Amino acid sequence: MLKERRQLFSGIFVGADLVVIGLAFVVAYALRFYVPLVPVTKGVPPAENYLALLPVVLAIWGLVFQAHGLYDPMRGSTEASERRRIVRASSLAMLIFTAVSFLGIEKAFSLSRLTLLFFYVLATVAVVLERATLREVLREARRRGYNLRHVLLVGDGDLARAVHERMTRHPEFGLKVRGFLAEDPLRVGGFVGSTPICGQWDEVAEIVERDNIDQVVFALPFDSFPKLAGLLSQLDSAAVDVKVVPDVDRFVSLRTGIEEFGGLPLISLRATPLMGWSRVAKRVMDFGLALLALVILAPLMVLIALAVKASTPGPVLFSQDRMGLDGRVFRVWKFRTMGLDAEAESGPVWATEDDPRRTSIGRTLRRFNLDELPQLLNVLRGEMSLVGPRPERPVFIDDFRSRVPKYMLRHMVQAGMTGWAQVNGWRGNTSIEQRIEHDLYYIENWSLRLDLKILVLTFVRGFAGKNAY
Q1: Fold of the 149-247 domain
Q2: Residue range 181-224, pLDDT digits in tens
Q3: Long-range contacts made by residues 11-19, C-beta under 8 angstroms, separation at least 24?
Q4: Where are the domains of the chain?
Q5: Single pTM value for the model
């Protein structure tokens, strides 16, 4: 029964995809030759020539979509994930069709490049919209109790309860939990919440057959994973979906994800969103805004340099070793705000309120963070970002990394001139634990929008923070 339902819905999606792709091909031809978007200079080719290509188009798109898993069950997948698959599949199909057409069809007649461009855009957008519409129709049907999958959860601990809670919270997935299997039902009692305990783990095959279960989800605690192979073997002859939720929360440091390596699934326990194009986009924004800031603030920086030079003997700029991306040490630049050899007697220490080492102009510069403007040069050089965890001195890091859990994770992204911790008041001589918590939140939730928000908050409340001294 489950197989027949899958084939039915897969057929619906195949049919809907091919209909909108075929329509997109016809509309692209009409847009090119019958709508005056671009003048037609070589005459209008017969529509029959293009219509003859429709079987080729539909065959290529159908096969490529199938290869990209667009007709596999995707109840729990996100719309963003499906959109990415559609764009990738449509792009590959377009490349294949272009190669085929220009190798063979061009000998019979000239194929309009602009028509192909129109078709690619229309087909991609149309399939995305068609899929979104179908998915919403199916979600609404599941909310109303139709097209449900009956699920058996093997496990009764926190992990199994978390899976149950998510399935209950999202009725649009159509996953109805029929019950739990417990290692020791007597210990747990008859129910987990309001959901019954159906039996023991080793009764899984019997209960699947008896209760017409469609899907078995193993959510076992990490210590019980050695028993998983034996439990799975019981389902070898059962026509049921089997899924495993790994108990890895205790090992997770940053956002998780599933990758593929030579056909093997890999669970990523430590990753950041700042990879690939995201990293390029952040770097482009950093470079552009830092360059603009240097141009605008150049007169102010010249005045500050003159004031520093006039107020106390010694160099205008001060440099110091800081640790950045991947634990690499670089030299950070500031306007000098303390006397020469300020740490000669005390050694490396935090700046304090009413710090006697500060110069007269240094007190004002540090109060409004103007001493950090030369770090715009560090941003241009690629050593820092405008936004990120503030870089710390290696001498302090040696202490922090030994007593603050996950401290070194902050070095998985570039250090910043300002950051989420700083705009929330955790700067200077404040709680290291709170700073790390905010830094890790930033890394896990990074986006260009968050960067821009932090920059705005820096101007609103960061330049004159209460802990800036």
Answers
A1: Rossmann fold (3.40.50)
A2: 988 877 766 677 778 888 899 899 999 989 889 899 999 988 88
A3: 12/134, 13/70, 13/71, 13/131, 13/134, 14/62, 14/71, 16/130, 16/131, 16/134, 17/61, 17/62, 17/65, 17/70, 17/127, 17/130, 17/131, 18/58, 18/61, 18/62
A4: 2-143, 149-247, 277-462
A5: 0.57
